[in-house]
């Protein structure tokens, strides 16, 4: 398998999951200007990461779909829950991370896509940080009562949370009042598979 990634992007979640899964894979780093090249658009017409090309040439895009596919390919790793409720809990938090948390970063990454007047960009970013603070508070409350997002066993939701926490730290989202999130981030940072994926992306 080949995973196409940008360092530190949401594809890092798939990279970590591949390490946890024990599956054999190759990580292919993309430069941002390569994403719109004809060669890469043939792999992912959206011109984005991640993209996963399986051994037989079948291509899968979209982060959540890739995470579930990897979990299914490595059932012994136990990354997708043991029963219907366990899987539903993992999907609950994956959906929240993908639809609510991830999307709330867009005004911080590209404020001009929302407001063309640069004088209003800082106000827009402040609103985005406030929204993110509230959404991370929900996750902190969850982690105050569970070791991992899905419960007491790590899952495909945890690498995604780790990625958006890295973004939050880099973009100065205030998480100082969230000790459970801080403990989670430290636990993930010390994990061997996480360290290997970070090193491969030049992020260690």
Main-sheet strand order equals: 2-1-3-4
Radius of gyration: 17 Å
Q: Uncertain regions: pLDDT < 50 for 5+ in a row?
A: none
Number of strands: 4
* Arithmetic mean of pLDDT: 97
Instruction: Kindly name the structural category.
Output: alpha+beta
In whole angstroms, the N-to-C terminal distance is: 24 Å
Return the string of H and E elements. EHEHEEHHHHHHH
The helical percent reads: 40-55%
Descriptive notes:
- The chain is α+β, with helices and mostly antiparallel strands and 204 residues long.
- The chain is 53% helix and 7% strand.
- The protein has helices spanning 11-21, 38-41, 63-73, 84-104, 106-109, 121-143, 157-170, 179-189, 192-200; strands at residues 2-5, 26-29, 51-53, 59-61.
- Strands 2-1-3-4 form a 4-stranded mixed beta sheet, with helices on one face.
- Helix 1 crosses helix 9 (192-200), helix 4 (84-104) runs parallel beside helix 7 (157-170) and helix 7 packs across helix 8.
- It is globular, with a radius of gyration of 17 Å.
- The protein starts with a strand and ends with a helix.
SSE blueprint and pairings:
Blueprint (H helix, E strand, L loop, with lengths): L1 E4 L5 H11 L4 E4 L8 H4 L9 E3 L5 E3 L1 H11 L10 H21 L1 H4 L11 H23 L13 H14 L8 H11 L2 H9 L4
Parallel strand pairs: 1-2
Antiparallel strand pairs: 1-3, 3-4
């Amino acid at each position: 398998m080949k995973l196409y990634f940008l360092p530190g992007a949401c594809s890092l979640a798939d990279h970590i999951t591949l390490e946890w899964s024990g599956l054999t894979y190759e990580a292919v780093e993309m430069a941002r200007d390569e994403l719109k090249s004809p060669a890469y658009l043939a792999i992912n017409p959206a011109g984005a990461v991640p993209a996963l090309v399986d051994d037989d040439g079948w291509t899968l895009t979209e982060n959540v779909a890739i995470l579930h596919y990897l979990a299914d390919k490595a059932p012994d790793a136990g990354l997708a829950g043991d029963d219907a409720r366990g899987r539903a809990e993992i999907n609950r938090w994956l959906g929240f991370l993908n639809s609510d948390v991830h999307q709330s970063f867009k005004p911080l990454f590209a404020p001009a896509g929302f407001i063309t007047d640069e004088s209003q960009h800082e106000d827009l970013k402040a609103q985005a940080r406030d929204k993110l603070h509230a959404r991370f508070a929900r996750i902190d409350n969850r982690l105050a009562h569970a070791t991992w997002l899905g419960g007491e066993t790590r899952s495909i939701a945890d690498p995604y949370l780790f990625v958006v926490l890295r973004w939050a730290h880099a973009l100065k989202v205030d998480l100082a009042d969230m000790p459970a999130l801080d403990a989670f981030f430290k636990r993930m940072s010390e994990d061997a598979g996480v360290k290997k994926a970070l090193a491969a992306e030049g992020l260690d």
